[in-house]
Design goal:
The protein is an alpha/beta fold. It contains 4 helices and 3 strands; from the N terminus they run H-H-E-H-E-H-E. The chain has a domain of 64 residues: NAD(P)-binding Rossmann-like Domain (Rossmann fold). Strand 1, helix 3 and strand 2 form a beta-alpha-beta unit.
Length: 99
């Protein structure tokens, strides 16, 4: 097989359709004030950072995680940085029961 650019091999090389796409707004430009954002896995790592960034920009964040204790700790940590953070922690347990 001849060496082709990576995009050609996967069928995503620049095409007419791609050139005509409207660029998306960056995350910093999108208005999320007064919107509700649901994030799973938001008690640590990138999920927690995403929750923090959405709260900073005025969104209400629903934190759906498997471990309620870890979620409570994450909520406390975010509220230390952002006291007026609008965070919701559902009471449902999202873990998968052992069979």
């Amino acid at each position: 097989m001849a060496k082709l650019p990576v995009g050609f091999r996967f069928g995503i090389y620049q095409s007419k359709a791609r050139r005509s796409c409207v660029p998306l707004q960056s995350a910093d430009e999108e208005d999320v004030n007064k919107k509700v954002v649901v994030i799973t896995g938001s008690n640590s790592g990138i999920g927690k950072e995403a929750a923090t960034q959405f709260v900073k920009r005025g969104a209400t964040v629903v934190m759906c995680n498997r471990d309620a204790n870890k979620t409570a700790k994450a909520v406390d940590a975010i509220k230390l940085d952002i006291p007026n953070a609008s965070l919701v922690m559902p009471s449902k347990n999202y873990s998968v029961p052992k069979s």
